[in-house]
UniProtKB/TrEMBL annotation:
Residue ranges that the Swiss-Prot or TrEMBL entry lists as coiled coil: none
The family this protein is said to belong to: Belongs to the peptidase M29 family.
Source lineage: Bacteria, Bacillati, Chloroflexota, Candidatus Thermofontia, Candidatus Thermofonsia Clade 1
GO MF: aminopeptidase activity; metal ion binding; metallopeptidase activity
Domain of life: Bacteria
Name under which the protein is recorded: Aminopeptidase
Amino acid sequence: MTDPRLGRLARTLVEYSVAVQPGETVVLTGEISGLPLIRETYKEVVRAGGHCLPMLIDETMSNTFLRLASDEQLDWVSPLEEWMAKEAKVLIAIRSTNNTRAATNIDPKRAARRARSRNELNKIRFMRSASGDQRWTLTQFPTEAYAQEADMSLEEFEDFVYKACFADQPDPVALWRKLGEEQQKYVDWLKGKRHVHLRSANADLTLSIEGRTFVNSTATHNMPSGEIFTGPVEDSVNGWVRFTFPAIREGRVVEGVELRFERGRVVSAKAAKNEDYLLAQLDTDAGARYLGEFAIGTNFGIQRFTGNILFDEKIGGTVHMALGRGYPETGSRNESAIHWDMICDLRQGGEIIVDGEVFYRDGKFAF
């Protein structure tokens, strides 16, 4: 029998996150390991009257491609990918995996080249999303691999995921709207502010938010959500930060990341583990050394690190920053083939000062 929480999550994605309308073209992508949620989501898109195009991905073949493809093949962009970026009205992505380390030994320079070849398509998608011309959402189906990464049993991890998505409750949409109302007062307070100073044992960082917009994130894109975020003025970031949780990208775990910024740009970087991968990503393109996002996690239903950024960046009491591409709706102008989130915990001490006033202290808002 299908887990009822799976059905509630699928309905929330289709009815609330992207609000599929009759006649709209919906691209539904996902790994084969996530088929149970893909099937439920497909069912809900059809019920909503959407024209659904399901696209299944096999991670073994994807990694085989990255290992064996020629430079010409790495640079090739499928006409279907172009159509998805330029024409599809709605994108729904279901993430899942049977092996979180499957890409560990792939040359990061090859992966970076592949990412650069999609730069223009990503730019189109980000702009269409910002204008409302294309709606998208992504979530994760709980698998044994993710559970192991989080040091949980599969049953425990399923409970964690569905609770974080409010899918364990009778009316998830009502709860997401309530969270949005709570977050909006902080977004409203930040309007017109200019200067941010992040200060803790792991950071002494300043940046400008002048002319930028904070977005109230309530699961219309990421599911789960629970954050407010903006794109800092590109050349304004100065100081240093040491990220307290591992930074994970493409199956690579980079621990002890410490970055120093001058005039917005990362001028030095080090890591206790996988430093070579960190440096390779920073050299992806010019925008990879600038921040595209500065955000505060507000989902206090998520309190433990799982090794999955979709959940970890929302941990209530943390901040995260993303190297690379920013979101146009925030006012960010930074462009890059990467968007790599890294998290710093403020629950054991630290504060965010905005225009000289304490806004956030010890993992909680000051008002």
